[in-house]
Amino acid sequence: GLMAARQAGLDDPARLRWAERTRRVLSLELNKDRDVERIHGSGINTLDIEPVEGRYMLSGGSEGVIVLYDLENLSRKPSYTCKALFSVGRSHPDVHKFSVETVQWYPHDTGMFTSSSFDKTLKIWDTNTLQPADIFHFEGTVYSHHMSPVATTHCLIAVGTKSPKVQLCDLKSGSSSHILQGHRQEVLAVSWSPRHEYVLATGSADGRVKLWDVRRASGCLSTLDQYNGEKSKASSEAVNTAHNGRVNGLCYTNDGLHLLTIGTDDRMRLWNSSTGENTLVNYGKVCNESRKGLKFAISCGCNPEFAFVPYGSTIAVYTVFTGELITMLRGHYSTVNCCVFQPHFQELYSGSKDCNILAWIPALREPVPDDSSEKSLPQQHLNPAYEDAWSSSDDEG
Fold first, then answer.
1. Peptide bond into 78 cis (omega under 30)
2. Has residue 13 been placed in a domain?
3. Which residues are 279's β-sheet partners?
4. Full-model pTM
5. Which is nearest to 159 in space by CA: 119, 200, 190?
6. Signal peptide: which range, if any (predicted)?
7. Per-residue confidence (pLDDT) for residue 369, from 0 to 100
8. What CATH number corresponds to the domain at position 9?
9. Order of all β-strands in the sheet with 178-180
10. Structural domain includes residue 387
């Protein structure tokens, strides 16, 4: 129906795109035909897919190892394994000594990526030579770092460490002198706004989420308050908290208008990022026992948008704006630490303590034959990523 409406010019072409992406996300299932080569000997803490082609994925593990995978099916066979192109293994002279907590591609090309670790360093890697182009050292454990996906006038990497000060490392000058002060305990999560290149969100073990404008001398724009100012008027405690526990996960929606936070109080909250208001969406209990940063993901280009949140050994899929729990993706044998969304094909990848990376892809549509002549045609075996994009089904979900 959507195809016909689009062809006849009755419908906006984008509507078919939104509907199809949403249908694909709602039908995510464990891919039985695609394996990700198992390289890590211990738990996987972090994953990142490069935003340029959506083809290469980085993973960082508890043993300090970083692996780069090619997600494309080069064999063109229905069943295949995503091969590891290379890894920074234990024998590499510049390998991280302890657990890698965050890996991130340089947002504009695949020639560079970044990694940070419990060994108190942030490393800037040249992808081609696998040598560090720069290394930043900190006084405490590094929990999280992030580069702005939209910045054009600065090259700052925000770093959350055991210190309550948020560190800003400048790739242009190689200095890490800029700091943002305001938190009282370690900073577990940092995320730049995808809308405003100077706006940064940070989450700390002190239960607070702060929004900063890094151009301002004072830095802090606001401290998010879960009660929207209702309670602080009456209580002597004037400090605003976003969660009643450690805040260990932050993720902006793709348009940057909302911020999703997660805390060890087993709550997830959605904030209006311009007003700082708690939107009071109820997600129910979101089980979160992680003592460090938790990496979760939000879909892109769907209606409504979905959040993919590690939940014990499963991944919970919520609608972002209504808080509805859509499904639980089961497949891992142990705690899931991270997941990353691939927006081009609406795929999800998750990393767990069980040393596995699993690929979740949209279920294929069952073809609906138009007439008897089609039934006699042999079924062509297409790449599963493209197969359901060319179906003739009217079914939307």
1. no
2. yes
3. none
4. 0.88
5. 190
6. none
7. 61
8. 2.130.10.10
9. 142-147, 156-161, 166-170, 178-180
10. no
Q: What is the pLDDT of residues 326-367, one digit of tens each?
A: 999 999 999 999 999 999 999 999 999 999 999 999 987 776
Looking at residues 385-393, what average pLDDT do you find? Answer: 45
Number of domains observed in the structure of the chain: 1
Spatial CA neighbour of 47 closest among 100, 1, 97: 100
Long-range contacts of 264-268 (CB under 8 A, 24+ apart): 264/288, 264/289, 264/290, 267/243, 268/307, 268/309, 268/318
Per DSSP, what are the bridge partners of residue 36? 82
3-state secondary structure of 222: strand
**DSSP code, position 344:** T
Q: What is the pLDDT of residues 285-311, one digit of tens each?
A: 998 888 788 999 999 989 889 999 999
Mean pLDDT value of segment 111-126? 95
Residues 161-210 pLDDT 10s: 999 999 999 998 888 878 999 999 999 999 999 999 999 999 999 999 99
- Cα three-residue angle 86-168-119, rounded to 5 degrees: 50
Judge whether 374 lies within some domain.
no
Look at residue 279 in the predicted model and tell me its pLDDT.
Answer: 95
User: How many Å apart are CA 133 and CA 155, to the nearest integer?
Assistant: 15
In 85-146, alpha helices (H): none
- Convert 280-303 to b/e letters by CB count within 10 Å (16 or more is b): ebebeebebebebbbbbbbbbbbe
User: Is the per-residue pLDDT at 112 higher than 90?
Assistant: yes
Contact 98, 64 (CB under 8 A): yes
Sheet containing 187-192, strands listed edge to edge, beginning at the edge strand earlier in sequence:
187-192, 199-204, 209-213, 220-223
Contact by Cβ (8 Å): 57, 68: yes
> Which DSSP letter does residue 25 get?
H
Q: Is residue 344 part of a domain?
A: yes
Q: What are phi and psi of 162, to 5 degrees?
A: -65, -20
Domain region containing 102: 2-361
DSSP state letters, 158-189: EEEESSSSEEEEETTT----EEE---SS-EEE
How far is Cα 35 from Cα 78, in angstroms, rounded to an integer? Answer: 11
Strands 199-204 and 209-213: antiparallel
Q: Is the pLDDT of residue 5 over 60?
A: yes
Q: How far apart are CA 338 and CA 302, in angstroms?
A: 21
